[in-house]
């Protein structure tokens, strides 16, 4: 007899016709289950109960096995791994007859928790949930093609490429962090574009942590947390930008933590960005912080002069704007805060030239960006420049002011004038005065000459670079 029963159970497990099976639990078992189910609130807490345990439905009881159902495979696995043991002991504490707990997937079991207006969607349960409203739109311009790679972002860039090029999930999560305006969002969009291009069948979800929280709260309010969970757990790639936003938001963190684990369990790629390293995120639960550091943590460093210049060159090409190299170099020197401001500065001078129909020059740039430059002025003095140049060329400070015209003195002096123009906001006449009372046309000539030489003479280019680095640290 037990054999026959065993067989029929084996037959129906995982079968669509499950409901038709006739292993109806007795009224006694039903009442017992009802009590245990109710006690789960107290045992596991309201949040877990609502998120996971509420949909549990008793389906059958046979040979000491309690068979309960949940609406999705994912929920089954999760409950199996996290709560099943305790649920079983709750059951067997109530009745010695209960020896095992079997969790099965029955899709109709979802009905309880779904608002009635969402019920029709269940008809095509096999289809992936619609995530278009949850995911944020991608900016077309933020691709790998437009991302300029330099030392400060090389690691993050390489990691991002690995994620899109690897046929398996190379590390989970990829955690990218860095200061504001350094390219975190750009990299994430680039990954999303590339994955969509390579594998159109994949669902890629990109959104800010802020939006994640908003969606979550909305789901709770409208009693549709199941739909929310399904949406997030159905994606192939989940990207959450600026995770620091959920600091202090406990229930959002809790939900995110579950989403995170669920996706990692399914071997789905997760990419996170933040303004700090996982360990430095304050207001984020220790459990979550340590999970965030599980995969690869890649930081984006503040920009270097080379990277800034590279970005400006690339941006100039994209804008098809006529901007002289000297202006790009000037901007790369002066606007050091972040890339967003750097782009903003270039946009401003290009727009200005466009509107007023003038050419972009160093002078016009300084004028247009007066306010910005003042804020960024690192207050390098002409004295400092003269001292560093003299040091570099083994000259005396006095040679910077003297009237001597010998090449070995005159050239370094010109370099110093050039750097004074580039690194300070002093006018040409002011600079002239500091160089032994020279005329502003002499300074202008020096600036042009050194610009030419930088192009033509690699020794000079290198000298200028060394001194500039020494000055700008
Ligand atoms: P974050 O998200 O780190 O605050 P963003 O990704 O929004 O920074 O970048 C700010 C701006 O700088 C964007 O317009 C972006 O396109 C640009 N940017 C950042 N890094 C690069 C880079 N390496 N190459 C080209 N543009 C970049
Ligand atoms: Mg960003």
The parts where pLDDT drops under 50 for at least 5 residues are 1-22, 109-126
The average pLDDT score comes to: 86
Please, how many helices?
22
Class of the largest domain in CATH?
Answer: Alpha Beta
Bulk shape: elongated
Order of neighbouring strands in the sheet with most strands: 5-6-7-4-8
CATH topology label of the largest domain: Rossmann fold
Provide the list of bound ligands, each named once: adenosine-5'-diphosphate, magnesium ion
The overall strand count is: 8
Strand content: 5-15%
The total tally of domains equals 4
Could you tell me the radius of gyration in angstroms?
33 Å
Q: Give the termini distance in whole angstroms.
A: 85 Å
Q: Which CATH-level-2 architecture of the largest domain? A: 3-Layer(aba) Sandwich
Descriptive labels:
473 residues, alpha/beta, GMP Synthetase, Chain A, domain 3, Rossmann fold, Helicase, Ruva Protein, domain 3, 4 domains, three-stranded mixed beta sheet, 22 helices, 8 strands, 9% strand, elongated, disordered N terminus, binds adenosine-5'-diphosphate, binds magnesium ion
């Amino acid at each position: 007899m037990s054999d026959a029963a065993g067989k029929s159970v084996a037959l129906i497990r995982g079968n669509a016709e499950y409901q038709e099976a006739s292993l109806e639990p007795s009224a006694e078992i039903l009442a017992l289950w009802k009590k245990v189910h109710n006690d789960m609130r107290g045992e596991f807490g309201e949040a877990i109960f609502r998120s996971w345990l509420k949909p549990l439905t008793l389906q059958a009881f046979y040979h000491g096995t309690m068979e309960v159902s949940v609406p999705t495979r994912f929920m089954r696995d999760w409950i199996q791994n996290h709560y099943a043991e305790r649920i079983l002991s709750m059951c067997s504490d109530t009745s010695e007859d209960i020896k095992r707990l079997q969790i099965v997937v029955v899709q109709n079991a979802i009905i309880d928790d779904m608002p009635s207006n969402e019920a029709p969607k269940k008809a095509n349960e096999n289809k992936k949930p619609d995530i278009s409203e949850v995911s944020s739109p991608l900016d077309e311009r933020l691709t790998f093609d437009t991302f300029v790679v330099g030392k400060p972002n090389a690691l993050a860039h390489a990691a991002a490429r690995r994620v899109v090029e690897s046929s398996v999930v190379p590390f989970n999560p990829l955690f990218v962090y860095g200061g504001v305006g350094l390219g975190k969002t750009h990299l994430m969009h680039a990954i999303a574009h590339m994955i969509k291009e390579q594998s159109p069948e994949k669902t890629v979800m990109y959104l800010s942590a802020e939006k994640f929280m908003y969606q979550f709260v909305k789901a709770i309010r409208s009693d549709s947390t199941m739909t929310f969970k399904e949406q997030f757990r159905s994606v192939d790639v989940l990207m959450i930008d600026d995770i620091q936003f959920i600091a202090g938001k406990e229930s959002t963190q809790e939900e995110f933590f579950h989403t995170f684990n669920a996706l990692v369990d399914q071997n789905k790629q997760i990419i996170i960005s933040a303004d700090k390293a996982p360990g430095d995120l304050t207001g984020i639960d220790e459990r979550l912080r340590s999970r965030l550091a599980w995969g690869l943590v890649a930081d984006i460093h503040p920009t270097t002069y080379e990277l800034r210049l590279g970005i400006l060159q690339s941006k100039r090409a994209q804008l098809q704007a006529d901007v002289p190299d000297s202006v790009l170099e000037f901007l790369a020197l002066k606007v050091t805060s972040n890339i967003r401001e750097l782009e903003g500065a270039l946009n401003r001078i290009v727009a200005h030239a466009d509107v007023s129909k003038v050419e972009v020059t160093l002078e016009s740039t300084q004028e247009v960006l007066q306010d910005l430059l003042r804020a960024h002025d690192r207050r390098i003095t002409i004295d400092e420049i003269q001292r560093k140049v003299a040091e570099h060329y083994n000259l005396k400070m006095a040679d910077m002011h003297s009237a001597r015209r010998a090449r070995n003195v005159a050239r370094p002096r010109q370099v110093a004038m050039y750097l004074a123009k580039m690194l300070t906001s002093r006018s040409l006449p002011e600079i002239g005065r500091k160089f032994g009372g020279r005329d502003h046309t002499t300074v202008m000539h020096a600036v042009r000459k050194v610009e030419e030489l930088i192009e033509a003479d690699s020794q000079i280019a290198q000298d200028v670079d060394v001194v500039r680095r020494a000055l700008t640290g």
